[in-house]
Amino acid sequence: MSKLPPGRDEPLEGSRVLWAGALASAAAMAALWAVAAPFPSVAFPPAALAELVINAFPGDAATASIEFLGEWAKRLLTAGVLAASVAVGAEALASAGAAEGPRPYRTGLLLAVLGGLVALGGPPGGIDPLATAAALAAAGGVYGWTAQRVLALARARRVGADPGRRRALRAGLGAA
Could you read off the pLDDT of 74-110 as tens digits, one per residue? Predict the structure, then answer.
């Protein structure tokens, strides 16, 4: 018997919540990139964070890595930051509502605010804060919607189908 209040679902195990957070984070990043790529005035937080890392890196080490990797240095750093962002998005969904269960929209809002702080700390020039905030809010909504749908699918798959119903359907299909 469940001891949860009426209307509350049984909690999902952590790995399913992490996967939901990772998928939602990837979808939100893709949506944000789709807006930021054609509009240079919209900041893309992973690229801004990569710029912050480049600026914080000691000069000799940065020069050596750029000489070794060439034009791929910034691309690989941005890809690493994207992977870390997906991991942060996954962990945020699992951790933000650890006591009461995942809260996708609340987590999406939290991640949008974090992205805004990163974007503000990025390189100055040409960034429209209002357009960036709107794009981040939309990306937070994409995160919440995607995570909610993936979690609902995980709950539905966990419940499973009634075996008696499956036998009846097979018997009906076999007779047809």
Answer: 888 889 999 999 999 999 998 876 677 788 999 999 9
Q: 65-85 burial string, b = 16+ CB within 10 Å, else e?
A: beeeeeeebbeebbeebbeeb
Q: Nearest 5°: phi and psi at 128? A: -95, 110
Residue 66 CA to residue 28 CA, distance in Å, equals 30
Other Cβ atoms within 10 Å of 127 Cβ, number: 17
Direct distance between the N- and C-terminal alpha carbons of the chain, in angstroms, rounded to an integer:
40
Q: How do residues 155-166 score in pLDDT, each as one tens digit? A: 887 665 566 666
* pTM given for the model: 0.76
According to DSSP, residue 40 is labeled T
Token duo for residue 91: 């962990």
